[in-house]
Design goal:
Blueprint lengths: L2 H13 L21 E5 L2 E4 L4 E4 L14 H12 L9 H13 L5 E5 L2 H16 L3 E5 L12 E2 L9 E2 L6 H4 L2 E4 L4 H11 L3 E6 L15 H11 L3 E5 L11 H6 L5 E4 L10 E5 L1 H4 L18 H14 L4 H22 L5 E5 L2 E5 L8 H4 L4 H13 L2 E2 L8 E2 L6 H18 L1
Helix pairs in contact: 2-10, 3-10, 6-7, 11-14, 13-14
Bound molecules: 4'-deoxy-4'-aminopyridoxal-5'-phosphate.
4'-deoxy-4'-aminopyridoxal-5'-phosphate binds next to helix 4.
């Protein structure tokens, strides 16, 4: 029963557009009302009606340690006692910058901001300033925050530039953005052949999580590195999700690729609002006040947010954590595969470390078009039934499920049993 959630939602609709402060929370894609939460404990969320769920949203990625981790909460508490914001430097910002730099070698200098959106927006401005060029390549199904120039639909035909995906964005702002299919070598090659000298940067989620999890094909990221170098364009890895999730040096560490710029967010703020962009010193030195590219923030490097980020990274960088995450995530993947086999269901699972998506399609999912073959009606029923089993999944087919270090064998076993029960009922 979710009586109080329903009451709050009714009230919220009168004061907040759609009743939520970020669209996906509305649960429209799964034909449900949003659940209002009261608190989180490790792998669990507890709603305002007292229902308990195993959580695979984990605040959309930041909570890799689980909810209310004592080290993180303690750091927030001690930091907040010293004051909430100074609008002046603190030594903790230096510590967080150093922690990140030491973990991700391609980052020689880094600037903290307040969200992933700010990070990608600023990285693109910087790439344009550095190259003196205007055009950007992004990939269909990759999401880089609600930056005007990146909210594009593919234009018709390869040679056409993106058209705005939302009212309120003038065509002039998206007309420099090319939206290409992910994993499509020849589309990228053609774009560079035609516009090579005008392309400032390629921005990519190296392991996309925003169309559901999709893996880069063998050599695709290496190819992006080579072709951007050839045409003197920058390669921007948007590791807002994958940074510190795929491993201590993100997806770039896993694939051994050094992008020119990297965007971070989510985990580096430990559940508080933090983003960052960083990369080669020569490029970052263009950022104000060292250089002419303006970018600023009243609350950037906020001491409480930075404290949560430092505590999270310190826990994560202890020996054995990524091995444990891999072990438990692999157990979940294997369990789902066994269920699918037993029930003779052809659905697809894509997993990269502790991010995973079960796609309701029999087609291999390797780009946005193949992800779109998923049966979203079926996913909606699956989501609702899983909720009744006490499992809170991301309320959309096209999202990653996140496993945290507080998910144990017990939670994974319960999840797999629930998936078996629900899928059996549905088919
Ligand atoms: N980049 C990626 C890869 C993301 O997943 C997101 C958010 N989900 C963003 C950028 C934007 O981050 P934020 O919501 O913090 O603005």
């Amino acid at each position: 029963m979710r009586i109080k959630s329903k009451e709050y939602f009714k009230r919220a609709l009168k004061s907040i557009p759609g009743g939520v402060n970020s669209p996906v929370r509305a649960c429209k894609a799964v034909k449900a009302d949003p659940i209002f939460f009261e608190r989180g404990e490790g792998a669990y969320l507890i709603d305002v009606d007292g229902n308990r769920y195993i959580d695979y949203v984990c605040s959309w990625g930041p909570l890799i340690l689980g909810h209310a981790h004592p080290e993180v909460i303690g750091s927030i508490y001690f930091a907040s006692k010293k004051g909430t914001s100074f609008g002046a430097p603190t030594w903790q910002e230096v510590e967080l910058a150093e922690l990140i730099k030491n973990s991700i070698p391609s980052i020689e200098k880094i600037r903290l901001v307040n969200s992933g959106t700010e990070a990608t927006m600023s990285a693109i401005r910087l790439a344009r300033a550095y190259t003196g060029r205007k055009k950007i390549i992004k990939f269909e199904g990759c999401y880089h925050g609600h930056v005007d120039s990146l909210l594009v639909k593919a234009g018709s035909g390869l040679a056409t530039f993106g058209i705005p995906a939302t009212p309120g964005v003038p065509e002039e702002l998206t007309s420099h953005t090319l939206n290409l299919p992910f994993n499509d070598f020849s589309a990228v090659e053609k774009a560079f052949l035609e516009y090579g000298k005008e392309i400032a940067a390629v921005i990519v989620e190296p392991i996309p999580g925003n169309m559901g999890v999709v893996l880069p094909e063998n050599g695709f990221l290496e190819f992006l590195r080579e072709i951007t170098q050839k045409y003197k364009a920058l390669l921007i890895f948007d590791e807002v999700i994958t940074g510190f999730r795929i491993g201590p040096s993100g997806a770039q560490g896993k694939y051994g690729i050094n992008p020119d710029l990297t965007c971070l967010g989510k985990i580096i703020g430990g559940g508080l609002p933090v983003g960052a962009y960083g990369g080669k010193e020569e490029i970052m030195n263009l950022v104000s006040p060292e250089g002419p590219v303006y970018q600023a923030g009243t609350l950037s490097g906020n001491p409480i947010a930075v404290a949560a980020g430092i505590a999270t990274l310190k826990e994560l960088l202890k020996p054995g954590t990524y091995e444990r995450l891999e072990y438990i995530s692999e157990k979940l993947e294997k369990g789902i595969r066994e269920v699918l086999k037993e029930l003779k269901l052809p659905y697809q699972i894509n997993r990269a470390g502790s991010m995973l998506t079960l796609f309701f399609t029999k087609k291999e999912v390797k780009d946005f078009q193949s992800a779109l073959t998923s049966d979203t009606e079926k996913f909606a029923i699956f989501w609702q039934k899983m909720l009744e089993e006490g499992i809170y999944l991301p309320p959309s087919q096209f999202e990653a499920w996140f496993v945290s270090l507080s998910h144990g064998e017990k939670e994974i076993e319960k999840t797999i049993s629930a998936i078996y029960k629900v899928l059996k009922e549905m088919h």
